[in-house]
Amino acid sequence: MNVKNIRQDFPILKRKVNGKRLVYLDSTATSQKPKQVIEAITDFYETYNANVHRGIHKLSEEATEHYESSRKKIAAFISARPDEIVFTRNATESINLVANSLDWKKGDEIVTTIMEHHSNIVPWLELKDQGMKVKFVDINDDGTLKMEQFGKLITKNTKLVAVTGCSNVLGTINPLAEISKIAHDNKSLLLIDAAQSAAHTKLDVAAINADFVAFSGHKMLAPTGIGALFAKKSLLEKMKPFMKGGDMIKEVTTESATWNDVPYKFEAGTPNVAGAIGFGAAIDYINRIGIDSIRQHEKELIGYALKLAEKEKKMTFYGTKHIEERAGILTFNFENIHGHDVATILDQEGIAIRSGHLCAQPLMSRLSINSACRASFYLYTTEEEIDILFDAFKNVRKVFRID
Ligand SMILES: Cc1ncc(COP(=O)(O)O)c(C=O)c1O
To answer: Could you list the residue range(s) of the whole structural domain that residue 74 is in?
Structure first.
């Protein structure tokens, strides 16, 4: 993988921030976009902008063709069928779709984990009002899941096991095949929140036997406002639509309506056509580099960062040190200093990191903290940028007088 060449594809990386070169270490929040994606979106607006699935005219046909071609690319990327891919706005909407569309009954249980992002917790908590129960698998001290708890928490009432492919805080890559087996042995469905994993590790929904997978385009080189839900076709066919309106119907009278085939049944209203086309271009880009090469690069980066971390004093670094189970996410705290203060100092050096509760308050409570700093890496990140980060820690130490 030639990172120098890859960086040439990302115009924003040439930017200066506060007079310094931009060191973008916030790809977990959203990735930067290569010019191939930006150009695909521009091309849509400049040459074939039209609504999809409606017009008979040429532009509409072209727009529909590109929109559906993106669906095929996304499906192939995760070894699914195109009619098992529903376009959504993001992973959050995909998870909400499942929460709103499954045929829940009172007493059903959802088993999730304490390391989840709010998007994979709050939609389930909302179901408690209807008599559902939510249970949480805990983590070990190294930030890996207490796998033995799945077997204990899953009961005959467990309708769904909802687990992240990768923690957006700890960087733990979870053993999805193993979790899938436990879930299915108990006749539970498995939902994978792949917001953080889809762009970084190979995901084969058929091999894992996932029932649902939620992910966001913007974390994988695509624009914001476009995401996808994978769901097994047999499940999609049984589920009721979450949103209703144009394009998702077969026939409407003044009395009632019948639903379109899947996946269109779940795509009410004009979709984000430009976003979907950008998503397709992003998948092309990732495929051209190769997801395994991306993973290898990130493994090297996190290994490098963890080595540098060993030398730091009065700091806590969270998560496992086993890079086989670890994504390119480095979450840390300086003793007694709020994450926002650290992020502000780093920003002055042109370094973009995330700070705060990282949309994972239950995990923050579990770790007995209320905020943390997170530096995250992607295919364009270099070891030199990690050096710049660790070098900038000296400024933090100077300002807060930490020896
Ligand atoms: C693990 C995880 N799940 C879900 C989400 C939600 O993604 P989005 O805001 O794109 O819906 C995020 C976002 O950071 C995440 O890290």
So the answer is: 37-288
Q: What does DSSP assign to residue 337?
A: -
The reply to whether 335 and 371 lie within a common domain is: yes
User: Is residue 340 within 8 Å of 371, Cβ to Cβ?
Assistant: yes
Distance CA 213, CA 80 (A): 11
Is the distance from the beta carbon of residue 195 to the nearest atom of ligand 1 less than 6 Å? yes
Residue 13 is part of a domain; what is its CATH number? 3.90.1150.10
The CATH number of whichever domain residue 134 belongs to comes to: 3.40.640.10
Residues 226 and 228: their CA atoms lie apart, in Å, by 7
Q: Determine the Cα–Cα distance for residues 168 and 69; give it in Å rounded to an integer.
A: 30
Tell me how far the alpha carbon of residue 39 lies from the centroid of ligand 1, in angstroms.
Answer: 25
327 and 205, same structural domain? no
Atom of ligand 1 nearest to the CA of 216: 10
From 137, 342, 359, 372, active-site residue: 359
Number of domains making up the chain: 2
127 and 211 both lie in a single domain: yes
- What's this model's pTM, rounded to 2 decimal places? 0.97
Asked whether residue 248 falls in the same domain as residue 321, the answer is no
Same domain, 192 and 54: yes
Q: In angstroms, what is the C-alpha Rg of the chain?
A: 22
- Asked whether residue 22 falls in the same domain as residue 46, the answer is no
Q: Which helix (H) or strand (E) holds 317?
A: strand 315-317
Q: Is 334 found in the same domain as 362?
A: yes
Coil, strand, or helix at residue 24?
strand
To the query of whether residue 373 is one of the catalytic residues in this protein, the response is no
Taking only the tens of pLDDT, the chain with its 403 residues reads: 899 999 999 999 999 999 999 999 999 999 999 999 999 999 999 999 999 987 789 999 999 999 999 999 999 999 999 999 999 999 999 999 999 999 999 999 999 999 999 999 999 999 999 999 999 999 999 999 999 999 999 999 999 999 999 999 999 999 999 999 999 999 999 999 999 999 999 999 999 999 999 999 999 999 999 999 999 999 999 999 989 998 899 999 999 999 999 999 999 999 999 999 999 999 999 999 999 999 999 999 999 999 999 999 999 999 999 999 999 999 999 999 999 999 999 999 999 999 999 999 999 999 999 999 999 999 999 999 999 999 999 999 999 999 8
